[in-house]
Design a protein that fits this description.
globular, 7-stranded parallel β-sheet, alpha/beta, about 35% helix, single chain
């Protein structure tokens, strides 16, 4: 049975805008100021600039490429890592296991946009976080299964990571007892970074339905062995 993906240009743009918002919130301390506001704390903090950071994107498919292109436009230093070599203007691209460590050690803001497969499940773990520079920031907008929750909490609590922006979780809605809810270094959104647009999705489904009936090649077919 063939399986196909939906490729939604609006989905990619919405995802890019969400990640940009989280990054700028981190750079300008807006996340911390919001917490301080609820506590009545007036505490100016030194902000950071675009030129201060290298953003690393795990996964350079349609979503990752859109984000990388937007970050370059804003003047960020951008690099990406994928299973196979990619070529994106203005982006340093790493590939495969041999390129993973080099990618991590120079990434100060890590964005996960990988597909969830057997190979990528649990990839956001303590050993990976240790290879990031001290005070790196994590953004996971891919799948909850990529993240080892306990490892993230440990790396936040020992100050190796400065914070995290999470949109996806192992359980959704997230259990009320989960420590993410009350951790001051974690920004949470309810798996709503980007939502497929009906006007974009439905024509693709109809196109592939008609192609299937005619025996024609399908668009955006999933490679089962790869899992995406």
């Amino acid at each position: 049975m063939p399986i196909t993906r939906v490729v939604d240009d609006m989905l990619a743009k919405d995802m890019s805008e969400h990640v940009l918002a989280v990054i700028f919130s981190h750079l300008k301390n807006l996340d911390r100021y919001r917490i301080n506001q609820t506590k009545g704390i007036w505490q100016p903090m030194q902000y950071k600039r675009i030129s201060d950071f290298t953003v690393g994107i795990m996964g350079l498919g349609a979503l990752g490429k859109e984000l990388a292109t937007d970050l370059v436009k804003y003047g960020f230093k951008v690099q990406g890592w994928a299973n196979s070599k990619k070529d994106i203007n203005g982006v340093i691209c790493f590939a495969g296991e041999s390129g993973f460590s080099g990618f991590l050690e120079t990434t100060q803001i890590l964005v996960c946009l990988l597909p969830l497969t057997d190979a990528t499940s649990g990839i956001l773990n303590k050993e990976v976080f240790k290879q990031l520079p001290k005070r790196a920031f994590l953004i996971n907008v891919a799948r909850g299964g990529h993240l080892v929750d306990e490892d993230l909490l440990e790396m936040l609590n020992n100050d190796h990571l400065s914070g995290a922006g999470l949109d996806v979780y192992h359980q959704e809605p997230l259990s009320k007892e989960h420590p993410f809810w009350h951790h001051e270094k974690i920004q949470m959104t309810p798996h709503y970074a980007s939502v497929s647009d009906t006007d974009s999705v439905v024509p693709q489904i109809l196109e592939n339905y008609n192609r299937l009936r005619k025996g024609s090649p399908l668009l955006n077919e999933v490679i089962i062995d790869k899992g995406y």
